[in-house]
């Protein structure tokens, strides 16, 4: 097995997916101390800022375990697993978040106030006000075929329907620049001439 300079073995997927950062995600998720779960007007519960959070501040670092698309489909089909919260991580790999963590309550918005600043990191896209719901655009973290959900964000930019193909939209690519999960950024760059 290949080793890092500090003699930490590379995880098995680093052998299969060259270029993937040779560090596994943390086993758990972290959420900024000024974020709490509350009832949401968008859907169910959501995440809310309890104090002002400046633009650029890391609001959440996702953790969990990496699985392949096939393993993810097995999880979706398992009746003992009622819900799977996941993002596209890199190529065929998907990060499955541990159940019951606050970040799993993060709702979608077509004009989100969070965006991706690293493979597993969401930061404030703009200054967040106390009491504001903290949201991200699900299109920036999934390319799952067949994924579709009705949007209830109510913003002026609301698309009404969010799909696993939204990453192909030029308006979203322009709006978010490089603020996508690595898997989607790789797909977007492959589309460019």
From TrEMBL:
Record's signal peptide: none
Protein name: SET domain-containing protein
UniProt domain Post-SET: residue ranges: 147-163
Database matches in Gene3D superfamilies: SET domain
Start and end residues of each SET domain: 33-139
InterPro entries associated with the record: Post-SET_dom, SET_dom, SET_dom_sf
Keywords recorded for this protein, A-Z: S-adenosyl-L-methionine, Transferase
Superkingdom of source: Bacteria
GO molecular function, one term: transferase activity
């Amino acid at each position: 097995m290949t080793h890092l300079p500090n003699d930490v073995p590379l995880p098995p997927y680093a052998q299969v997916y060259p270029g993937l950062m040779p560090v596994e995600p943390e086993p758990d998720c972290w959420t900024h101390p000024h974020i709490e779960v509350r009832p949401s007007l968008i859907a169910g519960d959501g995440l809310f800022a309890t104090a002002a959070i400046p633009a650029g501040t890391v609001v959440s670092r996702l953790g969990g375990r990496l699985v392949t698309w096939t393993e993810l489909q097995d999880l979706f089909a398992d009746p003992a697993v009622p819900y799977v919260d996941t993002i596209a991580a890199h190529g065929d790999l998907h990060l499955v978040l541990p159940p019951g963590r606050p970040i799993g309550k993060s709702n979608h918005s077509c004009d989100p106030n969070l965006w991706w600043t690293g493979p597993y990191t969401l930061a404030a896209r703009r200054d967040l006000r106390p009491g504001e719901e903290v949201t991200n655009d699900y299109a920036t973290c999934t390319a799952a075929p067949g994924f579709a959900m009705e949007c209830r964000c109510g913003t002026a930019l609301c698309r009404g329907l969010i799909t696993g193909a939204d990453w192909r939209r030029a308006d979203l690519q322009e709006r978010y620049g490089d603020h996508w999960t690595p898997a989607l950024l790789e797909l977007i760059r492959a589309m460019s001439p």
